[in-house]
Input
Amino acid sequence: MSDALLSVTDLRLGFMAGKRALPAVDGISFAISPGETFALLGESGCGKSATAQGIMRLLPAAGRMLGGRVVMDGQELLGLSEADMRAWRGGRMAMIFQEPATSLNPVLTVGRQIGEVLERHRGLTGAAATERMVELLRLVGIADPERRLTEYPFQLSGGMKQRVMIAIALAGEPELLIADEPTTALDVTVQAQILDLLAKIQVDRGMGMLLITHDLGVVARMAHRIGVMYAGELVEVASRQAFFTAPRHPYTQALFEALPDISRRGLRLNTIPGQVPALAAMPAGCRFADRCPQVMAICREQSPPWREVAGGHAVRCHWQGEAAANGRTGNAVTELDIDPGRAFLEVADLKVHFPIRKGLLQRTVGHVRAVDGVSLAIAASRTLALVGESGCGKTTVGKALLQLIQPSAGSVRLGGNELVGLKGRRLRSARRHMQMVFQDPFASLNPRLRVGEIIAEGMAALGIDTESASHAAAIAALLKQVGLPDEAAGRYPHEFSGGQRQRIAIARALAVQPELLICDEPTSALDVSVQAQILNLLKKLQAELGVAYLFITHNFAVVEYLAHDVAVMYLGRIVERGRAEEILRSPKHPYTQALLSAVPVPRLDHPTAIIRLPGETPSPANPPAGCHFHPRCPMAMDICRQAYPGVTELSPTHRVNCHLAG
Amino acid sequence: MLAYIVRRLLYAIPILIGVNLITFALFFVVNTPDDMARMQLGVKRVTPEAIEKWKAERGYDKPLFVNADAAGLATVTDTIFFDKSARMFAGQFGRAEDGRDIAREIASRMGPSLAIALPTFVLGLFVAVSMALLLAFFRASAFDFWGVVLCVAMMSISGLFYIIGGQYLISKIWRLVPISGFGDGLEAWRFLILPVLIGVVSGIGSSTRWYRTIFLEEVGKDYVRTARAKGLPETVVFFRHILRNALIPILTGVVVVIPLLFMGSLLTESFFGIPGLGSYTIDAINAQDFAVVRSMVFIGSVLYIVGLILTDISYTLVDPRIRFE
Amino acid sequence: MSGFQVVVLWSDVLVWLLVAAGLGVGVLIAKSPPLLAAWRRVGANRVGMASATVLLAFIAVGLLDSLHYRLQLDGKPGQPAVYAIEVLSVLDALAAPLRTRNEKTYSAPFATRLYAKETIDLPGQGTVRDYPRLKYGGQHLGEREDEVAADAGFTAFKAGVLAFVGWLGVFGVVAAVNRKKRPNLKLRDAAFAWDAVLLTLLAMLLAVVPLFWLAGQYHVFGTDKVGQDVLYQILKSVRTGLIIGLVTTLVMLPMAVLLGIVAGYFRGWVDDLIQYLYTVLNSIPGVLLIAAAVLMMQVVIDSHPQWFSTAAERADLRLLALCFILGITSWTGLCRLLRGETLKLRELEYIQAAQAFGVSSWRIILRHILPNLMHIVIIALVMDFSGLVLAEAVLSYVGIGVDPTMTSFGTMINNARMELGREPAVWWSLAAAFSAMFVLVLAANLFADAVRDAFDPRAA
Output
């Protein structure tokens, strides 16, 4: 492609391990035209970020370029001297990163950090620079830019930091923007804002954009062309249309089928068995062969060549077949209609307030109302999804239920027994009935204990079966139940992958035979294919054991797939709750509506009317007067500014706190 | 921010009281004044009368905490605790064994101590930070490797060696400067240059290595990658971005010792015959002059606490996150 | 020679306890793969293993010097046995030639004559002022005093050859064992840095064997003011340094670990109290607190002479007291570190999972927190060692260190430093003490670096 802005040819790079360089990116080639967004899609560890860093020549210390060419506007970049490369970096090509919180220098003002790019690449200083900075901040949608220029990053919210990062990237008037997971660390409503901004800027300036992401929804929203990466190789390159309608590589197909979605309720999600091969032990043939449903003998011997299946759609696969029957047909809405039994966990007006201390004597001057009057009920064999953005207090609710955090007020009744205020042995015996599965599979298992010991801990603490023989049998049964082999009991957590660790964590919780499992974002740290395995497992366990789930999440796709009931939280309070179909099909609260429409949908035909929320969630230390949501609400009325809305019952199960409904 | 500093100041009070109680317990409870008298007088001259006389001369004949014989306020004030410990808060340290007023002695000796300690501190900090910056700048190169090896070797050498060796080589063999002594006015530099030089050299190894670690920790942070992605030259990345952030942990270790510079250095001062507080302390230890040692412990603690407060204040200067809260 | 009485000094008890604890910890480590993996990384570190070899040699000397006894004096049969006042160690017995062959006063390394002129009676010639011949140093040369260099060189060469042959033996054994385990693996590529260990061993043998061989005929490092062999003093100093470096950390460890974890885990007023405690102790400048405490300890020791039956016991108790004082003044750093780390750990999800099961706080601390802090403790242990050895020298110089009768690097330096002012200077005591200290501390520092690199998760 001669008109390409950037062309990458046979790029190879690796990371030093001892004296060897392990290839992390093994010969990938693609090109980006001006005004085009090319998305590199892949799961963690596939080499997509390394590719971006390699193009900018910003690899970490252990990284090594092993070969290939990166040509931008006729200039080969890999051969440039470091000093010449600096003229490109930040100038004609710019990059934004995943973590806005750590990517800005904490001790320099915003103005200083933008200004140094202007000075370096545009030769602007003084008043001219300040003027340009104000323009840039306005361009990225920051209100009151003059004031913001003198502020430090810690004074900005997460979304604003990412806007500043974008302003820094734009300051050098780049022709190519590399965005490395630019919205992964942000909430959905903020993610929607940032994606809009990026798309608009790209169109306005005719920039080329390399978007690195793992999220099919983001791809659908942003990309013109997509390259799918697997284990350091590009396996499929397609236009957006072809990618979403006729993906050809079995890996791409599997990714789609692993996505949870309302249309698959009651169905098992397709999963990709096994794991990505380690860098040090890449198979000789196709790297996906071991996990591929279509694997043939040749796949294990020979790395497949590129094959053009249509104009601009190429795939690296020996298998010539079409997509398997797109499993989007089966619509088994079965247990949706199950009548909820009697609730066995009832939470009424639960409050968790943390004091804010200030001043000379550290007096309590206020409270962070992390949870401010939450009421819930869960019945056996049902899943209640507690949905909300970060900082809304959903995790605190989970911990307060377990009495891991002392509630400030309210009641938690389990089978008729009050838990709040229980101490010692009575609390311990009550805890048998509920357990928790945590978000981070790497922090939730003690690295110094064997898996068997980890699972046995709960049994021992709650006095179940202390006999060693039956103990071992029980552990083996639990491991089997979560799909792990017996011998796992004798091994240490670090020998397992993220998904396997989450299975162990589930086994640990199940060991005491709880009736309720509180799952705190159990899949948010996992890749899509692994997430599907865990969701399948949770469904299976519910069917077998009749266990109820309180599923804390921000991911609507998971909610759609798994939940019977949904409660939406905003700033410490539940704003809407009801049956899943009620909330998902006819949300009544403007926040729920906005939340639902902000979720990027991995389909071409996503809903047209997108509600965009301005701003970000305010601090729970100082919630807005009246309805907490009114400053961001597109439909706010006068009364919303004055009074918090009461409950409106729309159906026996569907309730909403909104003046509009009342 | 003012409330923050006032709170830190108020927190200093219970700590000073704690220090005072510990020293009191150490000097008067672990051993009775009788024991000290026996030790001071020596075996030959110990008689009950001599002990009583020794105690009376120094005011150690009073009760420890409560004087039942005295009336009114004096039940509390006419005690060893009040005389020897509580009065320290008012700067009354009493008299040394040689009869001189300790407070006045301390005031007159601070100058010479500072004359050595301050240049040593400033120069040492400058040299170590520059060396560390150089090593971090050329990280993972042969220069860095051998620099670190040199640092480890230098910090493995006893401080005594630097002093004894330096004195021997520079003063005795080369006869460049006087071996020891102290002069007034401009003449003083001839006496100061060697101890300062030795002080700087002996501290370089460990501090350079420590600062290098801090710099390297910052080098790995995300914001440094952002700075590089802007196309900034490596020198700008280092001096504008990394140095500013690394200052925060460096300040923690550095500011706290600034007030302690008044105390001087025990070793340097005694080797070079500088009439500062360091040599005063050493002499007191050797003469087992408990009153002086006790006073120095108290002053040292006060200065340390001042250092803690200064550290807190200096944070607000370099770290906007604290300044604005 | 008749019987002897075993003397167990308190410091001996602690030293052997340390050895036992070390072995115990070794067994524990072997059972815990994460720790074992970290130690394997230490084992693969060439510099680390080379310095460990040197440290082991020092430790061997220290251990030999920690088996004490008193000789029975010749008495008449039937009377109760009387034992000598002097407490000896196995090292003293092994180094008897060094210990007993005392000259009159200073003599330079490899000298055959004293360093000071004396009036000598020459039979038949009256008296002259000259440097008298040494009683022991170079005696075997007789009249051939000017052949010292040749004689010493030849002896050193013989010893060196012997050392090399001995080393070849060790090398052969190691290579054979390795080959048996992994037939195709070269020693250089083995997971354990055998090459570094063997090379260090060779260097050490080539230095030490000739040195001790020569020490039988000369005073290789000279003699001090009272004519004692400096090499012997160096050997005796090793134990003092090791005890100060190891026992001190051991003393402070339980307190620092307990208080640090308790403060971080329970928070609230417990945390406030512990923080207050260590801020107060931290506020008192270390040297001054040590000075005050040592002075007070001296008064206690001096006013209770009846506690000690020998001078060695008194010196020993003072050494231990010094360790305690150093320990109490230096636990605050580790305590604060552990508190901060516990604060982070207690928020981790596996701790919360345990809390959700109702596992008791102390059990959580023992099972979940302590094992995950072990690497910090181990790093602190090895990092502190070298600093303490250096501190001992300074404190002993200031007069608040070990008992003046106890041989240590500090007392050696203190005794010798004034003699640098003589013309010509007496330099060998200082040089020997500083060099030995440098080798010990350098090895400790390098080893500490290796341990830190292997245990610190950030470094990995």
Notes: The radius of gyration of chain C is 26 Å. Residues 230-459 of chain C form a domain with the MetI-like fold fold (CATH 1.10.3720.10). The mean pLDDT of chain C is 85.
